[in-house]
Amino acid sequence: MFGRLLKFELRCLLKKRKLLLLGTVAVIALIGGVVHYLGYSTPRRTVSEAFSFATDLIFPLLLPLLAGIATGDILAEDTESGLLPLIFSRGVTSLQYVLAKVVTGVIGQVCFVAGVLVIFAATLTPFFPSGPILTYAVDFAQDLAINNPWAYCLAMSLIYSLAAIAFASIALLVSVWVTNTFAVMVAPTVIYLATVYALGMDTPSKISFNPYGNLALGQFCGLPFTLPQIAVYWLIVATITSALTVLAFSLKRKW
Amino acid sequence: MKRTVEKVLTITRLNKVIRRKTILKDINLSLQAGEIMGLIGPNGAGKSTLLKIVSGTAIATSGRVAYNRNAGVGILPESPALLPAMNARQNLELLASIRGVIGKQEIFEALEAVGLDPYNKKAVGNYSLGMKQRLMLAQAIMEKPKLLLLDEPTNGLDPLGIIDLRQLLFRLADEGVGIIIASHLLNEIERMCHRVAVISNGSIWREVNLRTDEEQSIEISVRTAADWERLAHWASERQLQLTVISGAHSFPSGMLPGGQRVSEIVELLTTAGIAIEGIRRVPISLEAFFLECSQLEDGVYR
Question: How far is A2 from chain B (nearest CA, A)?
């Protein structure tokens, strides 16, 4: 039953035209980031550096919203549209249902982020030569950016995918209690910006580093992170929020 | 047709409490195969909650709901829930993929049964409310469940649609499907249902069998005042309550309780020399039941 339900959820996700629209918006925004990159000086402009600059500039701000809109509402929209009773009447348990939603969210976010970044990279390729990332790479992976720029881009893409999964999981967790799809979609952005603001406040305990860096999405991070640590950081956020979503939804007594 | 007595649904001592407020209280209900049961009651009485618990979208605080889960349950929610960008066939194929027990043939049959064209490529988002309701009915019946739960099934249907729905439900009942209909349209409930449960304040206030003589009173009118006197005497001898329902300007008439055959009464009264002007069985008025259960209490509706 779970396999069929997962297939059903993925088919529903694929039927959504908004993913295409959202992907187009993301690619255009990233191209805007490349235009911005052209205004900055660098010893050598390369496709991987343009990719790194643009994603670093755009994704820390846009990713929570993109993730929330892409798959964050998959739980809330069933409740709002009334599809949920039709699914439950076919013998699906609440646990099977919410697990299918979480897995669909993960697959959807990975495919969406990967799709956007692959199209973006393919768009850049004709306009820039290949080569190392000399200037615009995150502090904690400068060596990798210089020596193996595509491995660096791939690693950053993985981190963005994990962050997107975490943001979508936050939206899913919110949608256990909130049925308004708009509120659910913007919830990750609101929570993210609130956290960024809180971390950036001038308090006695403030640690002087960039709040974007603290959320491990920016290039000016002041802490001695490594790429695997950041990947694990987002993985933990995604796992905890997903587990809470499954637990909270399964324990509900009325859906 | 011989009706089976197999029970398709048994609800035993069901209670639902939300934040210390009792929504359903000690509900006991059963439904036989081939039976159509109406569920009526004022807004907020607990009808939808009861249907949600049976269909699995709500969990009871205590009590038991038993039905054959392998045979499935078909539900028709109060408002249509469909994927608007897809056509009717695609919607049903997608929903059918969850259980995977039926193929395209059954989907075509279900669409035809509710009067929709299986080859119509129009997106469901462009359907009229009536067409959406027909499609919702198709999704409810396509997997041939033994239990159907319909919440306001006539919503958005035109008179022809309502007639089609009635005929379809009768056919399904003949095939052994147990059907529960929650509706505010009492005349439709009277026409469609074999039995009606009236819910008030979360409890089953009364169950009425609409297809039995027991519940249907007999209205009788006689020619003269002398005939009326003889009729009253005849009724008191048999300990039957005769209720007066007409005044001096028409034929004297009254109401006898149900449970007797009209032909027998005619024969008995004729033998007793009472001139009958008219006699008829009076159908049960669900409106009267409904008004009684939702009557004002301290100035507000219960």
Answer: 9
